Amino acid sequence: MNRPIPGTVEVGVRHILSDKVTGFLVRTRRITWKDNVFRVRRPQSGKQTVELTCPVCDASLLAEVRTEARARRTRVVFGVLAVLFAIVFFSAFGYAVHEGGKTLPEGQSLPTLFPVSIVSIFVTFAVTPALAIRSRVYNGVTLLDAPKPRRRHSLRPVRR
Question: In terms of pTM, does the model score above 0.85?
Answer without folding.
Answer: no
